[in-house]
Amino acid sequence: MSSQDELSHEWMDSLGNCSPRKERTGLGEYGHPLGDDCDTLEPSFVDTAQLFPLMETKLYKRRWVMLFVFSCYSMSNAFMWLQYGIISNIFMRFYSIDSLAIDWLSMIYFLTYIPLILPVMWLLDSRGIRDVVVVGSAFNCIGAWIKTSTANSNMFAMTFFGQFVCSVATVYILGIPSRLASLWFGQQEVSTACSIGVLGNQMGIAIGFLVPPILVPNVDDMTELAYHIRIMFYISAGVATFIFVLVIIVFQERPELPPTQAQAQARSIQPDEYSYMASIFRLLRNKPFMLLVVSYGLNVGCFYAISTLLNRMIIEHYPGEEVNAGRIGLTIVIAGMAGSLICGIWLDKTKTYKQTTLVVYVLSLVGMLVYAFTLNLGHLWVVFVTAGVLGFFMTGYLPLGFEFAVELTYPESEGTSSGLLNCSAQIFGIIFTISQGKIIDKWGTLAGNIFLCIFLLIGTVMTGKILTSAPCPRCNSAVIMLSTWNRTENNTPTLVLG
Fold first, then answer.
1. How buried is residue 133: exposed, middle or buried, by Cβ count under 10 Å (0-12/13-18/19+)?
2. N or C: less crowded end of the chain, CB within 10 Å?
3. Domains plus CATH for the chain?
């Protein structure tokens, strides 16, 4: 529960040190912009800030259950994204298709996201998180069952349709972690919770790298191959069905009492006070955020391209190593999961969003360069090590981007800012996957990886530009505290407990 002493201490920290993380609202239309420096609180603003009484808050243990259920749903969908790509040579032979067709089984996830993200973000803001998660898990389940009937060499069109249905579910996933963290978790937990939400998706990618090469061995007998593919599809469908039922039974919209004062105040805002389109236009005019949108898209687009084309890159230098290609992918993601979690905890402890984002971006570039120039040395253990380093920083950047976006766009909706970030990532994912695939076919993997390094360098420069152009986001931590104060006749702040 909130107390006067705790709030007073939090208020003094906000003004004196300008270090505590601001509380996030999810709607937050009552925030006001401050100056570029932590010392520029305008007296006129202090005198006219909108005032709210303090309200009762509580952290529920079941917040971890909500996070676990969402992570499982995200994990299932991410697995089905990669279940074709990591054994692309097998599916190319099974369906008698070329490499571009098999790449589109992955890229359809990116393409679907682009036109659907705006209506889904609107649905998230207007209907709430539970409806979005239920609908998304339903699409995931339906798509998985469609694919169970496609273990036949002439059923490529149907398996593509099933993959398309699963890709629709992705639109209902990628913007959820930051919103879920704000709705259910306390002020000192949001970055960690967001990282764990992203972690579920990464766990699905890890399983997608590891399991398909085991379940579907590269055998010559097409009947036996069809049997193994069918087994994989039925396992995917069974898991997706169980998670869908779990979401319907367990997942809740929000706790009875809000976890923070900011969420308590957000609940008092009437729906007609919030304009979705106005929020979009404000974000598009936010220069630091738009720089982040592009730089985030470059980084994550590179990760998508590497994930999609990993089998081709490994097989080119290490023929017959489909299983090890999956293990290398697993190494990338497991290292990235550790990076995501460590970055989330680090942000909760230090609040150094700008500096951490830049350092991780630079190290992603370094990791990509090392991976590119060591892939063809002929030693698989070297590839495992360099891929792990690359994954730790490149995948660890994912929750950093979400959290930094919330800092730069406060008090806009977390779902909206996350959606725009992911839209950028999908666009660059398509561009990089097609381009790198063509470059690999013509000039080899080294040229393809250098191609990605160039764009990571551009993203690094843009991230550095954010640091020089963005105002101090933590200044707004004082705003939300000001809104909980009433003033006495002599203009002295006093707390009023609600």
1. buried
2. N
3. 63-262+276-479 (1.20.1250.20)
Answering whether pTM is above 0.70, one says no
How far is Cα 1 from Cα 57, in angstroms, rounded to an integer?
5
Token pair for residue 317?
Answer: 């230098």
Tell me the per-residue pLDDT of 430-478, one tens digit each, with 9 for 90 and over: 999 999 989 998 898 899 999 999 999 999 999 888 877 655 444 444 4
Q: Among 167, 16, 168, 177, which residue's Cα sits nearest to residue 83?
A: 167
- 444 in the Ramachandran plot: left (φ > 0), alpha (ψ -120 to 50) or beta? left
Q: Note the pLDDT of residue 329.
A: 84
Distance of CA 64 to the CA centre of its chain: 18
Contacts of 381-387 with C-beta under 8 Å, sequence gap 24+, read: 383/314, 383/318, 383/328, 384/327, 384/328, 384/331, 387/328, 387/329, 387/331, 387/332, 387/335
CA distances from 239 to 173, 226, 246, 358 (A): 17, 20, 11, 38
- Per residue in 148-185, is it b (16+ CB within 10 Å) or e — as a string? bebbeeebbeebbbbbbbbbbbbbbbbbbbbbbbbbbb
Model pLDDT, residue 186: 80
How wide is the angle at C-alpha 282 spanned by C-alphas 281 and 285, nearest 5°? Answer: 90
| Exposed e or buried b per residue across 243-261, where buried means at least 16 C-beta atoms within 10 angstroms of its C-beta | bbeebeeebbebbeebbbb
CB 163 within 8 Å of CB 102: no
Best CA proximity match to 365, nearest among 484, 455, 489, 236: 455
Given a contact cutoff of 8 angstroms between Cβ atoms, the answer to whether 493 and 19 are in contact is no
Q: Which residues pair with 265 in a beta bridge?
A: none
Distance CA 251, CA 133 (A): 8
CA 379, distance to chain mean position in Å, is 33
Say yes or no to pLDDT of 50 above 70.
no
Q: Please report the pLDDT score of residue 110 as a whole number.
A: 86
